Amino acid sequence: MNYLLLNSRLSQLKNCNPGSGNTENVNCNTTLPDVSASSDTLSKVLPILFGTITAIAVLIIVVQGIRFVLSKGEPDKALQARKGVIYAAVGLAVVFMADIIVAFILKRFL
């Protein structure tokens, strides 16, 4: 059932010219929102998003570092804090890579 609905929506999109304002065409009524995002908009919004996520990841690393120091040698608490630092560091690496990829795409294609 869901496959048929999706297939129907995709066939409607093939017959529709986005931004043409052709509302008389029955095949163009997809009920999908018409989203327009320019490279200027993305250039302003994405650094704020990536900066916020980076700040949160750094805060998590600091908090987990404090938890590691306060674990007082208890292996379970130290292990949880160490895992938290690793997870936040991996998240930080993902954010940096996403920022690089988005910047490349914006400069190259938009």
Give structural notes:
With 110 residues, the chain is mostly helical. The chain has 2 domains: 1-35, no CATH class; 39-109. It has 3 helices and no strands. Helix 2 runs antiparallel to helix 3 (75-109). The protein is elongated and about 65 Å long. The two termini are 37 Å apart. The mean pLDDT is 81.
Give the ordered list of helices and strands. HHH
Q: Indicate the mean pLDDT.
A: 81
N-to-C terminal Cα separation, in Å? 37 Å
Low-confidence stretches: none
Based on secondary structure, the structural category is mainly alpha
Number of DSSP helical runs: 3
Which percent band covers the strand fraction? under 5%
- Report the C-alpha radius of gyration, rounded: 23 Å
How does the overall form come out from the CA principal axes?
elongated
Largest sheet: number of strands, sense, barrel closure: none
Number of domains: 2
Oligomer state equals single chain
Q: How much helical structure, as a percent, in the residues? A: over 70%
According to DSSP, the number of beta strands is 0
Can I get a quick summary?
The chain is mostly helical. 72% of the residues lie in helices and 0% in strands.
List the helices and strands and how they pair.
Elements: H1 2-14, H2 39-69, H3 75-109
Helix pairs in contact: 2-3
Keywords:
2 domains, mainly alpha, elongated
